[in-house]
Amino acid sequence: MGDSRSGSTTVSDTVNTVEAQHGPHEKHVEASQGSGRRFWKFRMRPDDDDEPQDWWFASTAIPLLAATFGPLANVMSIAALITRWRNNYDPDNPGVDALSVGTPDPDWCIALNAASLVCGLVGNVFLLFNFTRRVRYIVALPATIILWYFATGILIGITICMEKYVPPQRPEQTYSQGFWHAVIAAILYLLLSMILMVNMLGYFLGHYKQHFELSDEQRNLILQTMLFFFWLAGGAGVYTKVDGELQFVDALYFCD
């Protein structure tokens, strides 16, 4: 009996020792796994947690891509709004695009084109506020995605309607650079909205906190890129005004 009690005491002491060694670690793991708000399989981490972060491409590369090509999409959209979408060929030089002259676009095309540009610009402003943390990530990023999807939908709609209802009367007419700039802008807005959704998915799954993981150098690069594209568009506008005959899209090429 004495040996049995002694053995039981030894086993009990061993179990208590093991629990004492591993208990805090297990509690830490549970606390770490439970941090942030959970909704079904989503776990939105607070901004002040210190857990390790992964999904580098989604957390860092995607914001950099969006900041680089977002202003480019805005410039393409500006070119699509300013430039007429259909050109008349010179009768003496049929088929020569360089000598073609623009014909007025329908009012509905211009109005919707302007609405698309506004959506694209406001979406880019929200993205800038997101980078500078002027607006919360969970507010600014959905706003950018939704507005860029609106810009995409409007541009796709008017390019399709233009082709269906008022297409160029070939061979006397053709689509101008403005039409193709609208197509490029729609593609850019669509692709950028899709990759920003990947960034938001990473946040919902708890891979990183609710802000873009960027260094100060990367944030400065983003601001410089945005300013460069707007400076480029402004320079093209001045070039067009001074020259008087050069179209905005051509001036944009020479200002690059």
Commentary on this structure:
The chain has 256 residues and is mainly α. It is 70% helix and 6% strand. The chain contains 7 helices and 5 strands. The strands form 2 sheets. The chain has a 3-stranded antiparallel beta sheet. Helix 2 runs parallel beside helix 6, helix 4 packs antiparallel against helix 5 and helix 6 (216-243) crosses helix 7. The longest helix is centred in the first third of the chain and has 33 residues, at 2-34. It starts with a helix and ends with a helix. The model is unreliable at 1-12 and 14-34 (pLDDT under 50).
Write a concise synopsis of the structure shown.
It contains seven helices and five strands.
Write the layout of secondary structure elements.
Blueprint: H1 2-34, E1 37-39, E2 42-44, H2 56-82, E3 86-88, E4 101-103, H3 107-131, H4 137-165, E5 173-175, H5 177-204, H6 216-243, H7 248-255
Antiparallel strand pairs: 1-2, 3-4, 3-5
Helix pairs in contact: 2-3, 2-5, 2-6, 3-4, 4-5, 6-7
- Specify the number of helices: 7
How many β-strand stretches? 5
Gyration radius over CA = 28 Å
Distance between the termini: 94 Å
Please list the strands of the largest sheet in the order they lie side by side: 4-3-5
Mean pLDDT: 80
| Uncertain stretches of 5 or more adjacent residues | 1-12, 14-34
Largest sheet: 3 strands, antiparallel
Principal-axes geometry comes out as elongated
Structural class determined from secondary elements: mainly alpha
Order of helices and strands: HEEHEEHHEHHH
Portion of residues in helices?
55-70%
The percent range for strand residues is: 5-15%
